[in-house]
Amino acid sequence: MHVFGLTGGIASGKSTVSRMLRELGARVLDADVLAREVVEPGTPGLTRIAERFPGVVGPDGRLDRVKLGAHIFADPAERAALNAIVHPEVRALFLQKLQALEAEGVTHVVYDVPLLIETGLHSAMEGVAVVWVPREAQKARLMARDGLDAAQAEARLQAQMALDDKRAHATWVIDNSGAPEDTRPQVEAVWRAMLAHG
Ligand SMILES: CC(C)(COP(=O)(O)OP(=O)(O)OC[C@H]1O[C@@H](n2cnc3c(N)ncnc32)[C@H](O)[C@@H]1O)[C@@H](O)C(=O)NCCC(=O)NCCS
Ligand SMILES: Nc1ncnc2c1ncn2[C@@H]1O[C@H](COP(=O)(O)OP(=O)(O)OP(=O)(O)O)[C@@H](O)[C@H]1O
């Protein structure tokens, strides 16, 4: 099994790139999706979050993501506490999904992880694609997409390694600062390079 990392920063265009990869036939696992699955009602993950962060589980038994997000993005220590609960669960679920894909006969998998480099997971990958945009474009797209003000967007950007630093760890840099039509051929080239492994 050949496993490649896909990362970027918040609102840099990872989802856009992962959609293009899927259109090309790639099987993509998304850490944000896994991170939602491990905190569904009834999971040990949600129980531990409810204990550590009182008040973030709503009356419907579901995680109040807006409330928890406002809390952890404002405080690095609280964020680390949440990561310590969620990340091991995500890791275990990822390995489970990978095994299922392997059993299906899939040979090349892309793992889309916003914190791939921050968590050191990039070193376990056969190659790493970083979706890069200039910081100002990233902030503007984040504010527009999520309806955040400049300070809220800045807090989320500060919670991650700068894209200019992530580039240094990239096997492939995908420049998403132009129009999507400019991004697509870069994604095609990266997928061809991934398939050339093995
Ligand atoms: C705090 C939570 C509840 C906020 O949920 P919300 O629906 O608003 O955001 P969502 O999960 O879609 O994440 C949006 C983006 O925020 C960034 N982000 C999320 N968690 C973190 C984190 N712990 N540290 C830094 N950036 C983060 C990522 O770029 C992510 O793509 C949620 O992000 C969460 O549970 N985070 C902890 C798990 C985690 O680290 N996820 C990231 C990949 S494993
Ligand atoms: N090339 C582009 N030109 C203009 N807008 C873009 C481009 N690529 C993405 N966007 C827009 O920027 C925003 C962020 O893109 P996207 O959701 O793909 O990022 P992401 O990295 O997956 O973000 P997150 O990690 O926060 O989920 C979206 O609103 C998207 O429509």
Automatic annotation (TrEMBL):
<feature type="binding site">
    <location>
        <begin position="11"/>
        <end position="16"/>
    </location>
    <ligand>
        <name>ATP</name>
    </ligand>
</feature>
<protein>
    <recommendedName>
        <fullName>Dephospho-CoA kinase</fullName>
        <ecNumber>2.7.1.24</ecNumber>
    </recommendedName>
</protein>
<dbReference type="InterPro" id="IPR001977">
    <property type="entry name" value="Depp_CoAkinase"/>
</dbReference>
<keyword id="KW-0963">Cytoplasm</keyword>
<keyword id="KW-0418">Kinase</keyword>
<keyword id="KW-0547">Nucleotide-binding</keyword>
<dbReference type="GO" id="GO:0016301">
    <property type="term" value="F:kinase activity"/>
</dbReference>
<keyword id="KW-0067">ATP-binding</keyword>
<keyword id="KW-0173">Coenzyme A biosynthesis</keyword>
<comment type="similarity">
    <text>Belongs to the CoaE family.</text>
</comment>
<comment type="function">
    <text>Catalyzes the phosphorylation of the 3'-hydroxyl group of dephosphocoenzyme A to form coenzyme A.</text>
</comment>
<comment type="pathway">
    <text>Cofactor biosynthesis; coenzyme A biosynthesis; CoA from (R)-pantothenate: step 5/5.</text>
</comment>
<dbReference type="Pfam" id="PF01121">
    <property type="entry name" value="CoaE"/>
</dbReference>
<keyword id="KW-0808">Transferase</keyword>
<dbReference type="InterPro" id="IPR027417">
    <property type="entry name" value="P-loop_NTPase"/>
</dbReference>
